[in-house]
Amino acid sequence: MAQLGSWVQPHPTGLYIPSADAWVDPAEPARRALVTHGHADHARGGHREVWATPETIAIMEARYGPQPGGTPVQYGESVRLGEVDISFVPAGHVLGSAQIVLEHAGERIVVSGDYKRRADPTCARFEPVPCDVFVTEATFGLPVFRHPPTHDEMDKLLQRLHANPDRCVLVGAYALGKAQRVIAELRALGHADPIYIHGALERLCNLYRDFGVDLGELRLVADAEKDAMRGHIILCPPSALNDRWSRRLPDPITAMASGWMRVRQRAVQKNVELPLILSDHADWDELTETLTEVAPREVWVTHGRDDALVHWCMTRQIKARPLHLVGFEDEDD
After folding, report:
1. What is the CATH number of the domain that holds 190?
2. Which of 8, 20, 88, 263 could form a disulfide with 81 if both were Cys (CB 3.0 to 4.6 A apart)?
3. Residues 103 and 206 both lie in one domain
4. CA-CA distance, 18 to 110, in Å (whole number)?
5. pLDDT tens string 172-200
6. How do residues 206-252 score in pLDDT, each as one tens digit?
7. Which spans in the chain are helix H?
């Protein structure tokens, strides 16, 4: 009897599907790439063909230039490559993020990419797909990682802002996904004031707007007077938090939005005064609940803390193994 999922070959640089002559999230340029989402550790340039959601292709074009071999696949649409039926299902990670569902030889394999289970006003919510093999991330694959409610973290941000009207709150947030989510979550709580952004965030914020995500009034820090930014929230890439750029701001309270802010030492290392635990990845409970929900016969664990999740599976008589793919980073989640 053939091994379950033997028609998908794990390599250090990605998952290869010979029957479709395609790679999922290859770390090197490939003839045909199936891409789960637009973060640079999953979506690289140089592929001859790219199959992804329209949003992900647009993100890749914004980052790498025109994608002449780009083929957009809508959520729920099915395409056939070689002998494999392929569809894209929402992953809930960032705009356009998808789980890639592969069906061949009477088996269904779901490559989840990066995913989260929390509601997010900037992207479609994760949809569980029952399968034979589930390929899961394990970025926060330890029981210590349990993310607090999103509104609690946003309340902390607004309370600090209102308590310091003569200062500003500078929030470090990854340029794709996290920055837009912070803005949208604040808008959902009724924060209608202008939000200032670093120039490096402008292009992707505009892209989100092009796909119908309402971010309200955004202003560039470069166009603002220092005093005009008092009492406002300012967003920047994490790399700019302690950069010379921040010196133009009015006495900033330094914050950072990341699941890693659960680890106090990370906040200390980055000189973060206001850690905001806001992740675009599933926490431990959400990872295990997802595995229970999709009920796979086998679990493949990648890019993260795989030991604990593999152990959890094995204690529940679910076959599991780590893939040890290379090149995946947390990207300041």
Report:
1. 3.40.50.12650
2. 20
3. no
4. 16
5. 999 999 999 999 999 999 999 999 999 99
6. 999 999 999 999 999 999 999 999 999 999 999 999 889 999 999 99
7. 54-64, 150-163, 178-188, 202-210, 264-269, 284-294, 306-314
**CB-based contacts of 41: which residues, under 8 Å, 6+ apart?**
303, 327, 328, 329, 331
Question: Which tens digit of pLDDT belongs to each residue from 25-43?
Answer: 999 999 999 999 999 999 9
Asked if the model's pLDDT at residue 93 lies above 90, the reply is: yes
Q: Are 179 and 201 in contact (CB under 8 A)?
A: yes
In the chain, what is the straight-line distance between the N-terminal and C-terminal CA atoms, in Å? 41
Q: How far apart are CA 268 and CA 152, in angstroms?
A: 21
254 and 292 within one domain: no
Q: Going by C-beta distance under 8 Å and a sequence separation of 6 or more, which residues neighbour residue 324?
A: 12, 302
**DSSP one-letter string for 63-80:** HH---TTEEE--BT-EEE
Tokens of 240: 């700019």
CA distance 2 to 7: 9
Mean pLDDT of 265-282: 94
Q: How many domains does the chain have?
A: 2
Domain containing residue 191: 150-276
Residue 330: predicted pLDDT: 52
Q: Where are the beta strands (DSSP E) in 130-251?
A: 133-138, 168-172, 195-197, 218-220, 233-236
Both 177 and 303 in one domain: the answer is no
128 — pLDDT class (breaks 50, 70, 90): very high
